Amino acid sequence: MLDFITEKVNSWDYLRSCGLPVFIYGMGDGANKILRVFEEKGIACAGFFASDEFVRGHSFKGHLVHKLSEIEAAVKEFVIVLAFGAGYDSLYNRIMDISQRHILIAPDVPVVGDGLFTYEYCLANSDKLRRVYDMLADDLSRRTFADVINFRISGKPCYLHRCTVPRSDIFNGIISLDENEEYIDMGAYNGDTVREFVNITGGKYKRIFALEPDSRNYKKLTANTADIPRLHTFNAAAWDTDGEGEFSDRSGRNARLSNEGQRIKRIPLLRGDSLTENATIIKMDVEGAEMQAIKGCASSLKNGAKLICALYHRNEDIFEIPLAVHEMNPNLKLYIRHLLYIPAWETNLYAV
């Protein structure tokens, strides 16, 4: 019984039946994904708006892009659908302020893969969801797990707002570091999380291994970390075998293994265990390849390595990844936290 799931009306069903004009906030890939679901579900889009600084005569899908104030002046009551991610304070606060004045829905569409995260999807995977809920290490993890699931069903940002914790809570309450750490950063981007690790340890650690597959990001990584000692960087992707794979290059922070896109190239694939089987902490944010990356770090995880792993790229990640880690090493305690972000793109597993 999934008693921790209280939302049973999917965001898409609400949008189809609410009887109010539906305006999409944002343009780009997120809006395109949402429009595809709108077409599938028979949801009408009344128009688009963007933040004031982006409204300069733009059009999107044949619609003039408005300011919110223009829609407010013309339409008495309407629903807003958020079509982009908000991960910094000023934008997040703006969205939460809008949600106090209007009905605002942030519908869940997977970053990678197909299908939708709905109440019916939860029922179909109820045994796995229940197992994860019961194995989590503390009450906050269970509340966060429930809030994120209820958000993904309903699209209501209040669920994320109430379970968001500051980033400092992770290293002050869950993960502790010392001078004996061997750190693998999978999906190192521009070096921000490498720098965070160095700052937290005060520069006292054994070694750092950083993997970044995107060529532009990799240049930023090497430039931004040139002063960091005992750091080994690799223009490669994390996987469960060593070899080569096709990669959609220059996709920014969301770069991933794919044979679709404008710039496809072959890049090295590396197991974490090929770098070291004695990693003490591993971070994975690898755009949907987390399950393969976990398998590639089996030796370190079985030896008790601490793990930070994204749970939001694929629909199934929120239950399949914790179950896989638990099966690999049942002695690891599993925590879930959500950092500031709408939608649930900063929901992570912490295993210690």
Largest sheet: 7 strands, mixed
Number of helices: 15
Strand content: 15-25%
How many β strands by DSSP?
17
Net shape: globular
Q: How are strands sequenced across the largest beta sheet?
A: 9-8-7-14-15-17-16
Spatial gap, N to C terminus: 28 Å
CATH class of the domain at 175-310: Alpha Beta
**What is the residue-mean pLDDT, rounded to a whole number?**
94
* Regions with little confidence, pLDDT below 50 for 5+ residues: none
Report Rg: 21 Å
Q: What level of helicity do the residues show?
A: 25-40%
What structural category arises from helix and sheet content?
Answer: alpha/beta
Describe this structure in words.
The protein is of the alpha/beta class. Among the domains are: 11-107, Rossmann fold; 175-310, Rossmann fold (3-Layer(aba) Sandwich). It contains 15 helices and 17 strands. The strands form 3 sheets. It has a 7-stranded mixed β-sheet with strand order 9-8-7-14-15-17-16, with helices on both faces. Strands 3-4-2-1-5-6 form a 6-stranded mixed β-sheet. Strand 1, helix 2 and strand 2 (47-49) form a beta-alpha-beta unit.
